[in-house]
User: Fold this.
Amino acid sequence: MTNDPTNAIRYLAARLASAREVAILTGAGVSAESGIRTFRDAADEATRTMAGLWKDFDPAKLATPEAFDADPALVTRWYDLRRRGCLAAIPNAGHVALADIQRRVEAGGGRFTLLTQNVDRLHHRAGSAGVVELHGSIIQWRCTLTGQKLTPDAAEFRALPCPSPFDARGLLRPDVVWFGEMLPEAALDAAEAAIKSCDVFISVGTSAQVFPAAGFVRAASANGAFTAEVNREPTPISGLVDACLHGASGELLPRLLAAAWPSR
Ligand code: OAD
Assistant:
């Protein structure tokens, strides 16, 4: 295991450049440099890190089906505010590097899967293709009765709770996975397939505390993949991976890309 950033980048870059199949898991940290708050970070002026959402808000009162049933207007307002924050944010250099890594792997005939716990759609906007959204999307909402989905425009929801255009008795809810809900089956299947067959697995910007995603690195490693972590801080998986890149993903991922494919 190496965790000197320069050595770790070189070490991981060599594996990445020769991989047949790459899987990358991202969490809120990859979007932190786009100004989107993470969930569990402590505020840190030196690295301009904002306090995580769960430091100020109680997930039990906002991110569960019970919370929505109890106070749909409150939950709608909170998610709509976050939704508009995501729409206003711009993908950062880390998102862009991940899209470039995908293009390089695929151009070489390899397979690439991007698994994200993020609901902000910044990977899509940076050019990543086939993104697997494990926790759904805040950009898309769905009718509580019919399940039909729609993508609201950037304006604030005016009627709270926002009524569903599909069934007058329904409400619109964010198409995210709340605590106590199942992850989308197709996303879980895609993750399982990627974990089984990848030869390189990289975890980026996640505290590795929320399962099932928190277990992906261990599973990939057990299947023989070379594993790595990119994170500002050590996490519960730091001791398990073959390479640790400690620092900001917006700085480290472009360096990793350049080290893996130096001619670009
Ligand atoms: P967390 O807030 O738990 O963790 C964010 C991680 O990103 C931390 O380990 C930070 O050290 C790291 N980080 C912060 N800024 C970074 C940067 N610029 N570069 C690299 N790393 C950075 O967020 P997640 O792990 O994504 O689920 O949280 C997982 C799930 O918990 C979320 O999807 C959400 C939340 O509750 C639901 O809402 C269902």
